[in-house]
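Lecture notes, part 5. Sequence design as translation. It can be helpful to think of inverse folding as translation between two languages: the language of shapes and the language of residues. The source text, in structure tokens, appears below.
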């Protein structure tokens, strides 16, 4: 079979054996994969990664111990916990210290003709959701994680800093849950997607409000994002960090301490919360698709995804 491989900053295609399927795992055939910022960071050296990337996917089940799954279109949670530690017993396998992570940490990813995942990680897609939309389930779940972690009072205005893929999804999720959102970004062509959903957007050249919000989300993907988000927060405000950046992030902790800010790291979320939102009129994922490429054209797809202004680039199996 054909797989996408990252090594030493290069994206190539390789031939590989079809993977072995352990008990209680399923064999999946890729239908659609999505290239996200984490994949681009892996290419740049995040985690010292080499291997098969890809964790945003829609696939067809072609082998399974549970016959009812055969032929189903599925999406899948990317963390593979041990199932028996304290975190896994709490339903928080994404924090399992022994976990592997699809396409990121010790688990070959979805950018391959075939790959495997545990049955317990799968969610069957309703027929009403197109595969090109369902591929957004994982980042949409990450956006939903904010409301799973933080009890934000109804009616509170939330600032979202960043207009990339995740920033747009976060703004749309918060808006769909009834929160007033102000989204700040540097690209009008991206902000217009949020604006079309009724979100208040502001184009900025780096000038941002100071000490104006009790709730700020950093989704810039930029090392300077935390510093900017902290400056936007009022004393005793909360800053939610969604950016995953390769390398160290310099930050002046004095304003955080003096203003008694709460910093919350936020990562993966529950797919159960995300899937219904894919059919919500305020979640506009179709407009976030920049390009579609065949799996065999993965090097060109990664190059397109890395271009300035690009959003979601899809790989079709």
């Amino acid at each position: 079979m054909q797989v996408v491989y990252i090594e030493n900053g290069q994206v190539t295609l390789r031939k590989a054996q079809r993977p072995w399927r352990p008990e209680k795992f399923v064999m999946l055939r890729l239908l659609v994969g999505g290239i996200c910022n984490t994949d681009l960071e892996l290419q740049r050296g995040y985690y010292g990664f080499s291997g098969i990337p890809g964790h945003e996917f829609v696939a067809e089940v072609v082998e399974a111990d549970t016959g009812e799954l055969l032929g189903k279109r599925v999406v899948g949670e990317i963390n593979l916990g041990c199932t028996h530690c304290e975190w896994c017993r709490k339903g928080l396998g994404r924090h399992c210290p022994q976990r592997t992570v699809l396409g990121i940490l010790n688990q070959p990813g979805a950018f391959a003709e075939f790959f495997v995942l545990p049955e317990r990680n799968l969610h069957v897609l309703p027929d009403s959701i197109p595969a090109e939309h369902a591929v957004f389930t994982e980042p949409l779940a990450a956006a939903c994680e904010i409301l799973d972690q933080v009890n934000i009072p109804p009616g509170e205005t939330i600032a979202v800093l960043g207009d990339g893929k995740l920033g747009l999804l976060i703004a749309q999720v918060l808006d769909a849950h009834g929160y007033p959102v102000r989204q700040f970004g540097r690209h009008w062509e991206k902000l217009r997607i949020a604006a079309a959903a009724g979100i208040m957007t502001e184009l900025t050249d780096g000038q941002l409000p100071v000490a104006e919000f009790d709730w700020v989300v950093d989704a810039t993907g930029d090392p300077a994002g935390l510093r900017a988000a902290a400056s936007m927060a009022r004393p005793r405000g909360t800053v939610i960090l969604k950016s995953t950046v390769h390398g160290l992030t310099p930050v002046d902790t004095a304003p955080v301490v003096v203003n008694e800010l709460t910093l919350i790291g936020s990562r993966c979320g529950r797919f159960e919360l995300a899937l219904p939102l894919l059919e919500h009129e305020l979640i506009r994922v179709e407009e976030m698709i920049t390009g579609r490429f065949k799996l065999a054209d993965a090097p060109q797809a990664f190059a397109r995804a890395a271009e300035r202004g690009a959003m979601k680039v899809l790989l079709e199996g």
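The translated text above is only one of many valid answers, since several sequences can fold into similar shapes. The two ends are 11 Å apart (CA to CA).
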